[in-house]
User: Fold this.
Amino acid sequence: MSDMQITFPGGKKVAAQWHGFEIMTDQPAPVGEGSAPTPFDLFLASLGTCAGIFALGFIQSRGLSAEGLGIAVSFERDEATHLLSRTVMKITPPKDFPAKYLPALVKAAEQCLVKRTMDNPPKFEITAG
Assistant:
């Protein structure tokens, strides 16, 4: 099991040290300073960027240009629980992308490790002391 270290640099900022990077989070004003994304923002970004790297890998592995590739990600939350209830990703393929590859491009994006983890969530254990 790998260990990520979480530190508290002041105010509402929380940082994670992971693989040589410091990943900073904050809360929006007026609770925090709004100086960094919230932890939930990073979670949402991880969904889109993970799908993106798989889509990009598919395109690059076929020697195709990725120019114009984009993914629009929409999120819906359950009003009662405030939890994420639906995520929709719409891939804009690169210019001149062969239509025959569209289903495979979607399938590649669906292989995202973050999405697959959400499909089969891990058990969480939180301890103190």
In short: The chain has two domains: 1-36, 38-119. The radius of gyration is 18 Å. The first helix runs from residue 39 to 61.
